[in-house]
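Same chain as my last thread, 432 residues:
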Amino acid sequence: MNTTLKRKARILVVDDDPGLLRLLTIRLRAENYEVEPMENGAQALAAASRFRPDLVISDLRMDQLDGIGLLKELQIRWPGLKVILLTAHGTIPDAVHATQMGAFGFLTKPVEKQELLAQVHKALKISGFVDTAEDWRAGIITRSAAMEEKLGQAHMVAGTDARVLITGESGTGKELLARAIHKASPRRARPFVLANCSAAAEDLFDGDLFRSAEGGTLLLDEIGAIPMRAQLRLLQMLQEKSDGPAGAEHTPPNVRIISTTNRDLHALLAGGQLREDLYYRLNVVHIEMPPLSRRREDIPLLVAHFLAELAKETGQRKIYAPEAVELLATSEWPGNVRELANVVRQNCALAQTPIIPVELVQQSLGGTQAKLPSFDEARDEFTRSYLSQILQITGGNVSQAARLAKRNRTDFYKLLGRHQLVPDDFKERSGG
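reply #2:
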């Protein structure tokens, strides 16, 4: 087997005992796993967004954020991510309770090597971990942290049968993400069927549609546009699938449901245009795709990709002048990636030379002005986001938040006031 085509499973290990943390890291790396060791739950939660683990192994008893608290936060952010808890003998009842709350399992200290590896192997297998590298996401061009976060969520949920609702502006790549989830899932060898709900007749949602996706994935594209009578029929089909007796003829086949929309579903719910019971049936895991304005670092990468694709089609290789690339990267893109692709195609068709000038881009954009935020605006936006995240992690505890930020309490309170953040606003979830 060509191992270069594989990627290592990523395991986040969390323990406040440095010796045990080092031992677990060494053992797992020896088995060719990619391991990220963390000394506490708060650090681990912050690292999860960057590292995108396939599995988390965490100590149960830790200061600041313990294993139970970490488990709850991980379940909220990445449903489907498996968590194994480490316990001392005296905390086994707590660990049993944790498994009832959704932990995959627990290991007692001292951790026996073979039991550790067996649990890890089983957890990764059940999670649907795909080791055939990144081919499942090959259609998504990105180096953006915001997009990597969404891809991490997608990969984690791919190993489950949970229904997924993908929202986002037109042209952000919702269908691409749905296809990526299918490719990363155990259903990847079965059909991927797309149903256009914006033109849905009531009889679209019949047994034939579900049977066409037997064992695979059914994508309900633009679920926000589905007519009310068709909503009722779809709800009936989903209820039969979930509640119907095993083997009953009316029960639809084994199909994974993914839905997409660019509409505001909450507004549709409030206006009575979308059934609440259907919404909750479809919205088990929600992934919101970021607009191009939140992943500007991807624009040069996407432009290079589109130029390469056009070169294959036409046999003519063209590039943008540096100032033209700068204009593309700083302009507004209401149509997101789709609009960017159209502009690149138009520029290539109209360019008289191999180098596309900035004037041609200006014409295509119709005088759109660059709206990249200033350095001060970008810094303020980052600071507010960072402070919000750290308050969320600590449940609004200012002392803990200040320690994590390595600031004294007085300075930290000043920062909160400057960015209009109230610690009490972050305390509700921590008590749950």
